[in-house]
Every structure is written in structure tokens, then in C-alpha cells.
Amino acid sequence: MMYKRILLKLSGEALLGERQYGIDPVRISQYAQEIKKVTSLGIEVAIVIGGGNIFRGVSAANNGMDRVQADYMGMLATVINGLALQSALEETEVQTRLQTAIKIEAVAEAYIKRKAVRHLEKKRVVIFGGGTGNPFFTTDSAAVLRAIEINADVILKGTRVNGIYDSDPEKNKNAIKFDSISFDNVLNKNLKVMDSTAFTLSKENNLPIIVFNMNKEGNLFKIISGGKIGTIVK
Fold it and tell me: Which residue among 21, 48, 87, 205 is least enclosed by CB atoms within 10 Å?
């Protein structure tokens, strides 16, 4: 196998499925099955999930809400998604732990790096909720930060498109996909892979990112098995 320990980054919007708001049980069940296939190979899996399907702090702040309050609300939305994904995974008999950057003892463990690593070593899936625990930082930043802390081999960013393109493939049918691209070329071409803070942190720590279509059945398993899926940034 190419990787021993991965961090999977999922957007909150991905959980919408065919819905306009909230969590689509069909989509989250599909994700749980995909993740189970990977854990069956003995791969250690950590997950960071966004909250945009429930609440987006930046959007609320743009509409007049205090930015700090709005961001904390967004963090809580990621915890809700984490609980939902934990439930879906446990229905497939995958042992899962949810850790949060802000303390919510009744529903999740507080994030402790050593504890998270121990869970991973025991082949439990670890979901990191609550972002970084700080306002003004995105879940992309949380994903890179946690990946570095737990010594993940790669960040797998699951999206609804097949990789990184020279323009938006949902708006331009002639957009050209990159199979592989360097960190510097992403910056030079101003391609939107992650927010700049997250991307710079990944670049400085030489942590590769693979952007792929999580909604296509089998893609996650193919990446872990060495398949050329999506776009790798390295």
C-alpha cells in the first residue's frame, strides 16, 4: 500500500447529497461504506469534515453577524456532521472516535494528539470536529494542521469534481485537468485547492494533497491501492 495513515478532508456541502440543506442519509451512508473499504486494508484513517451544509461562519459574518460568534457556530456545525458520520460508520461496524477542538464532553472526546494517534494505531477511525478551535481558520487549515500533528502520509481532499483543473470544470466544459502539479505551480496559476493558510502550511511541511471526486464509488479505495485518481499536489 502507498499509505499507512491518511487524513480525509470532506466538505460539509458534500453531505447535502440531493438535499438543499442538512445531511442526506444516503450520501453519508455511501461515504461510510467507502471509508470501511479502506479500513479493511489496515489503513489508519483520520477525517476532518466541514460544516457548510448547516452553517457557514463567513457568510453569516458578511451579513452582519459578529465574525467570532459566527465562526464558533460553524465549528459546532462540524461537530454535528462528525456525530452523523460517526453514527454512519458505526452502523457499518467500524470503530470510530470523535474528537473536538472545543470541549463538548457529553458527545465527544477533547482533542489530544497522543490519544488520537493511539486510536489510529488501534485501527479506529478518528474524526476531528470543531475545526482548529479558533475563529478565522477554515476546516482546510484544521485538516492540514491535524494531518501534520498525527504524521499522516497524505491529505485526501474529497470533492464533487475529478481533480484540479485550469478553470472551473462546472462552468467551463473545456477545462483541462492536471494529473499532477507542484505546490509552486498551484500558487503561480492561482488555482483554488485550499485556502492560502492551509495550502502554505501543507507546502512548508512537504505534505502531499490529492484532490479527487469522493462521490464516485470506489475512488477512495483506488487511491489507497495506488490508482491514478484525481490530482496530486506535491
Answer: 21
